[in-house]
Design brief:
alpha+beta; 29% strand; 8 helices; 22% helix; 367 residues; four-stranded mixed sheet; five-stranded mixed sheet
Length: 367
């Protein structure tokens, strides 16, 4: 399903003023706000997406010239949904689940509230780290090695907590229940409190002989290296989730590893969704007469033709030289904005030429 025209979404004409755009958006925002009875979240997001583009003069100019492709939007997917189609994240915090080593489901948040609290004692601790990429690594993807000091499964007892050759026995403190009732004396009388058994820590069983390496803990802190394949097109602020690559716990699954992605800024390029933006400077004479220039892209230099009469601020679109879509296939565009430089200093000969040019322009008015 293709996106609707942004002007149509807001119910305005293409030549609408900034004030008209703002009024149209406010009217729709009040009407469709999700917190309002009868509100429509999909329409609210669609209107917000249209407003975010049309209120910005540079984005609006690119949209008028190139359509949705000019503002980093995917041609498919539901309106206002930053996760659908992987077209462009627009600064969203997106989480990737690489539980089986490949690109899996997308998660909107890390923590599951009450469910997380219930399972925390039965699985290892989640770990969070940060990985910084260059602009090019984020565009094309890269394989990185992450080294962390973590509680890992004890290699000697394989996490069983007992010395190899010895078994487990019922905890004598809790009689295998894993819980213990403690009676507390208060000003209101005696109160019974149920808590984990301090001897077996809720497991109900203890080693006949503790592991001589981890001393019955089942885990040992050590340096753990993890290979991580970064998908092409990942954005700054995204988070990758690696299932069971966090800290270990005895007789339970490991926690998860969350890798927060940071992307270094580029000296020449900026990114906007699946677009790459850059500026190129040309002279007055080249703008008037036309020329060819070598444009730097993430794929190397490309020769681009500048037609005669090009105005400063004109955008040119280099298709398929932008950011790859995360699900593969197409890439976004590279938008090159031409800046016509005004010379600050002129030689005597240059001044004479400009005077002749100005004089001939004045005469042409009366001819």
């Amino acid at each position: 399903m293709s996106k609707r025209d942004y002007y149509e979404v807001l119910g305005i004409q293409k030549g609408a003023s900034a004030d008209e755009i703002k009024k149209a958006f406010r009217k729709l925002a009040v009407k469709h706000h999700p917190d309002k009875e009868g509100g429509d979240e999909a329409k609210f997001k669609e209107a917000n997406e249209a407003y975010e583009v049309l209120k910005d003069s540079s984005k609006r100019q690119r949209y008028d010239q190139f359509g949705h492709a000019g503002v980093g939007g995917s041609s498919g997917g539901g309106a206002g949904n930053p996760f659908e189609g992987f077209g462009g994240f627009q600064g969203q915090n997106v989480n990737f689940d690489f539980g089986d080593g490949g690109l899996g489901d997308i998660f909107g948040s890390f923590f599951g509230g009450g469910q997380q609290q219930q399972t925390r004692s039965r699985r290892g601790r989640d770990v969070e780290t940060e990985l910084t990429l260059t602009f090019e690594e984020a565009i094309f993807g890269v394989e990185e090695k992450i080294s962390l000091n973590l509680e890992d499964t004890c290699e000697h007892c394989k996490g069983e907590r007992a010395e190899p050759g010895h078994g487990m026995k019922t905890c004598t403190t809790c009689k295998g229940s894993g819980r213990q009732t403690r009676i507390m004396n208060t000003i209101f009388g005696q109160i019974q409190q149920d808590e984990l058994c301090p001897t077996c820590r809720g497991r109900g069983r203890i080693p006949e002989k503790e592991c001589t390496v981890c001393h019955g803990k089942g885990t040992k802190r050590k340096k753990v290296e993890t290979k991580l394949k970064i998908p092409a097109g990942i954005d700054d602020g995204a988070t990758i989730r690696l299932r069971e690559h966090g800290e270990a716990i005895a007789n339970g699954p490991k926690g998860d590893l969350f890798v927060n992605i940071r992307v270094k800024p580029h000296k020449k390029f900026t990114r906007e969704g699946d677009l790459i933006l850059s500026d190129e400077h040309i002279s007055f004479s080249d703008a008037a007469l036309g020329t060819e220039i070598d444009v730097e892209t993430v794929d190397g230099e490309i020769t681009m033709k500048i037609p005669a009469g090009t105005q400063s601020g004109t955008d040119f679109k280099l298709s398929n030289h932008g950011v790859p879509h995360l699900r593969g296939g197409k890439r976004g565009a590279h938008i090159v904005t031409i800046i016509v430089d005004t010379p600050a200093k002129l030689s005597k000969q240059q001044k004479e030429l400009f005077e002749k040019l100005r004089s001939s322009k004045k005469k042409s008015i009366f001819n």
